[in-house]
Amino acid sequence: MSVPNLIEGGAQEGGKRASTENVPAIVGMGVAVESACTGIEDRAAKVRSMRDRLIDEILKLPGTYLNGCRENRLPGNINVSFEGVESESLVMMLDQNGVAASSGSACTSGTLEPSHVLLSIGVPREIAGGSLRLSINGYTTGEDVEYILKVLPPAVERLRKI
Predict the structure, then answer these.
(1) How far apart are CA 52 and CA 58, in angstroms?
(2) Which of 26, 59, 107, 112 is an active site residue?
């Protein structure tokens, strides 16, 4: 089986690709990868530290569960579920306070069903329906973390009373 031509019309690469390589784009991509990899371990440690602080504090709320493994997760990934809370309402309340969050993965956006991934790892449906995903990165600051910890607990409490 042969690989089909990517672009018709030229003999480059044994007739599999027409045109000349975009050398500036290739060089630019190399520089971007090099830049992204420089200091990656230090950035990951900083993000992991903020993530762990968020997880530790969020889990102090009663009826709150960490989804997934505590240690084996991406440095900037936080996924928790709140018993007695509808996640879409929580996301909207956080948004009104300037916190960008999600109720699930991008592949499940637009649906009110709990994440099939959470259900498959054994999270009960009624708890999975209260899931919240926060993503942080190297641009997240300690002040951002403190702000989330300031606005999240009252939002959870308010929704639980409704």
Answers:
(1) 10
(2) 107
